[in-house]
Amino acid sequence: MSHPRLPVMLVDDEVQALDSFELALRSANVNNFLRCQDSREVIPLLGEQDIEVMLLDLRMPHFSGEELLPKITKDFPHVPVIVITGADDVETAVKCMRAGAFDYIVKPVERSRLVASVKTALELRDLQRQNQLLRVHVLSDELADPEPFVGIITTSKMMRSIFRYIEAIANSPQPVLITGETGVGKELVARAIHKVSGRQGAFIAINVAGLDDNVFADTLFGHRKGAFTGADQTRNGMVEKAEEGTLFLDEIGDLSPASQVKILRFLQDGEFFPIGSDMAKRSNARIVVATNQELETLQDSGTFRKDLYFRLRIHQIHIPPLRDRKEDLLPLLDHFLEKASKALGKKKPTPPNELIILLGAYHFPGNIRELESIIFDAVSKHVSGKLSMEVFKSYISKRKPAFKADLVGLPLDDTAPISFSEKLPTLKQVEQLLIAEAMKRSDNNQAIAAMHLGISRQALNRRLRQADKERNRN
Fold it and tell me: Which of 104, 212, 236, 275 would bridge with 240, disulfide CB 3.0–4.6 Å?
């Protein structure tokens, strides 16, 4: 039986080296190989035959491994590439790793080192397949093609309904308006729209916040040589770069009125004028925009054009905040722990069971981006064992919204965190209700409940014991 199912590709111009690699790997029960001595055949072979792992020599005639590596990692990013070289210098190693190499081994190759590296790469490929199968299993009953959405970590029914809507509008040439609070993942959704659409062109993203009218026009539509001082050569804008693809404009609510007119004309006519040109150009780039602002409110105040708003909202997607999809906390926690550990070069820590309870009681005004930031901070300070709760507790306690109601100047304003019926409860009743709610939100974890109440765990415990005594007497 062949192992692995797909071959390990060995690329070296020397037959002796290929024999040596194969012999070493056969000793570890790896027996499926694809050998290549001519570097010119590497890319064509990859186009014809899927492989598990590649061993790539750096010094070869025709095309060197350094030339091939970035092409392989770009066009075949799922394939781990283990670089084999006689050059034992740090600069070359760093260059290869930055180009996407999975590992870097110096000749003469130690058998144990080679085997360990290939086995690790094979395990990675197996994990990738398992994760893919899990995602397909979760989504295949609802989506025609789950693959474009795998980068969005979610188990939320609300998010899956958004995915289904994206599939429904995928082939439409009309613009898409994505709304949602800061940090909910609007650009990830925009990228998913592009992938599902099957458009052959590029996905081009621009944050238009803070761009004045001239910079906006130059960025989007480009300019002709000599159009203005410093325009030493003609430059194509992002609209042309997104030809046959998708142009994503983030923070569209911050666009100036003059720039709004320009984008409206482009949406209406599909034509634009580079700065300094009186010849119109056409583009079929699909426009996807995003904002964390209420465009309806902006148009009511006169800062956002109504005609542009109605043109943009032909297809509209609202991404719910993280506090409305708490079921995503656990998979996001696992995902960001993995991501942070890799980025920081640490072993992935084990989170304590009560961490998800603590996170579930927090309102996350910064949404997924805020969660990622907290986790990266916690992992950066992590040493060993279980992940400490202290970074999370400290962060959340500092961001508890303060209650600033004036007890003398009643009634309370609309920003107060509580409201009352006509008959006021007693102080004891309010205390009991507040403690009960805190315990409910913290899944009966007294330490977390006490933190949210702003008291010590001992003080909360005394109140709970007193309440039990009163119930028993009654």
Answer: 236
For residues 204 and 243, is the Cβ–Cβ distance under 8 A?
A: no
pLDDT at 406: 45
Give the pLDDT confidence score for residue 372 in this predicted structure.
96
- Report the pLDDT value the prediction gives residue 400, as an integer from 0 to 100: 64
pLDDT attached to residue 324: 93
pLDDT computed for residue 136 by the predictor: 52
- Per-residue pLDDT of 112-157, as tens digits, reads 999 999 988 987 887 676 556 545 544 545 688 889 999 999 999 8
Cβ 374 vs Cβ 391: under 8 Å? yes
For residue 114, give both structure tokens.
């080679």
pTM of the model: 0.61
CB distance 178 to 288 below 8 Å: yes
CA atoms within 13 A on the CB side of 96: 27
The rounded distance, in Å, linking the Cα atoms of 25 and 32 is 10
We report the CATH number of the domain holding residue 386 as 1.10.8.60
- Which of 102, 132, 162 is a domain's end point? 132
Distance CA 161, CA 318 (A): 11
User: Do 17 and 121 belong to one domain?
Assistant: yes
Q: d(Cα 116, Cα 131) in Å, to the nearest integer? A: 23
- Please check whether residue 84 is in contact with residue 57, taking contact to mean a CB–CB distance below 8 angstroms: yes
Q: Are strands 271-272 and 176-179 parallel, antiparallel or unpaired?
A: unpaired
The residue ranges of the chain whose pLDDT is under 70 are 1-2, 127, 129-142, 400-422, 474
**Residue span of the structural domain in which 369 resides:** 324-398
